[in-house]
Write a structure and sequence with these properties.
about 400 residues; alpha/beta; single chain; 5-stranded parallel β-sheet; 3-stranded antiparallel β-sheet; 2 domains
Length: about 400
């Protein structure tokens, strides 16, 4: 079995590997610190507090066993694949024992008794972004020690090339300062560890671009849009975390690497020259936009809404309302629709909210906390677009 560890990127990769017929398992990680500062098992205090308050879903798949313990060495896995995952913030640090773990702060706000207990035993901390690679290195050495003889593959993160604009964004805080500097010697260091191989995600994604001849928006359709102007932050940034076309290619690279015992890249897997250039937004016509919106794919729908956001002089509300029955429940997509509504608060968009709220209310796959937050955001958008209606 191949073990995948990290954030949703490794989840998507594990799913692609399973679809290719590989035996896999996946577990989410919250921060290297939860493992390197661990007492070796889940502390009873943490188990009791979370179970007693019934807030397990607020771990958001960062299960306590995976936060506090590395994968077991038996039965022996075929390989461990871990990516440079982003850290959840804040972490809860025990005041005396100094171990830490992640729990969504929303759990504390919804459970006042739990909040009082947590504040008695724990401090909330935010790890320094500049020290991330050192924290990851310590975790990697821990994995190497606990899994002797098991191949370990470290998957890099995509770089912030200007051609992947506007303003490439990663959820790993500080990656924009690390990727072209400290990350390079780190990759070489990790690759030199016994039984460890570093895979360059930029090269693999570059091969995907070369083979597809599709624009940036087709591979990275999700955009992060600022709620209001903020000096030093981009108003609109390209989400590099969610690249649906990357996962099958990454699985193929993992299989090649495990077979060869070293990183194996295809001839076309290199960083495209265009990534070093200037990004130019694509412009799709109304027919293509509607086809993407009604496709049922969150990636395709986001590509269309990205067009809307890049063309603020045009009104696409009618297209959104027409497509509402077909648009999937997806936080990243909803974020973009809310950003469009904030910039163009047309009352007709309330119709989209009504239809989409029905779809979201019936969506239970990600748990009640997810559904509650999602519906709250739809209702906030509905109130916003109706605020200017005369009474």
């Amino acid at each position: 079995m191949i073990l995948f560890r990290g954030n949703c990127q490794m989840q998507f990769c594990a799913e692609a590997a399973a679809a290719a017929g590989l035996d896999v398992s996946f577990a989410s990680l919250a921060s290297p610190l939860t493992l390197t500062a661990s007492p070796g098992a889940v502390p009873r205090l943490v188990t009791d507090l979370i179970a007693g308050a019934k807030v397990g879903e607020y771990l958001h798949t960062r299960e306590l066993a995976d936060q506090f313990a590395p994968p077991p060495a038996t039965p022996r896995p075929e390989a461990l694949v871990v990516n440079l995952f982003h850290e959840n913030r804040p972490l809860l640090l025990h005041k005396q024992a100094k171990y830490c773990f992640y729990l969504d702060p929303a759990a504390l706000e919804r459970k006042p008794g739990l909040k009082r207990a947590m504040e008695r035993h724990f401090d909330a901390i935010v790890p320094n972004p500049a020290g991330y690679l050192n924290r990851f290195a310590a975790m990697l050495l821990l994995f190497r020690d606990r899994l002797p003889g098991v191949p370990i593959l470290v998957i890099g993160r995509l770089g912030h090339y200007p051609g992947l604009g506007p303003a490439p964004h990663s959820y790993l805080d500080g990656w924009d300062a690390l990727w072209s500097g400290p990350a390079r010697p780190f990759a070489a260091w990790a690759d030199a560890l016994p039984g460890v191989t570093f895979l360059d995600a930029d090269r693999i994604m570059g091969g995907v671009f070369a083979r597809s001849a599709l624009p940036v928006e087709a591979h990275f359709p999700f955009l992060r849009v600022a709620d209001e102007p903020n000096q030093g932050l981009a108003a609109m940034a390209r989400d590099l975390e969610h690249a649906g076309s990357l996962w099958p290619a990454l699985v193929a690279a993992i299989v090649r690497t495990l077979s060869a015992g070293r990183a194996e890249y295809l001839p076309d897997e290199s960083v495209p020259e265009a990534w070093h250039g200037t990004w130019s937004p694509e412009r799709l016509d109304s027919k293509a936009l509607l086809e993407h919106l009604v496709s049922g794919s969150n990636y395709r729908a986001a590509r269309a809404v990205g067009n809307f956001l890049a063309r603020p002089e045009e009104d696409f509300t009618e297209l959104l309302v027409e497509a509402a029955p077909h648009m999937p429940v997806c936080h990243n997509l909803l974020h973009m629709v809310r950003a469009y509504g904030a910039r163009r608060p047309v009352p007709a968009l309330a119709g989209w909210c009504d239809v989409h709220a029905e779809r979201a209310a019936a969506f239970v796959a990600n748990g009640e906390a997810y559904r509650t937050e999602y519906l709250e955001k739809i209702n906030a958008l509905r109130r916003l677009v109706l605020a200017r209606v005369s009474v």
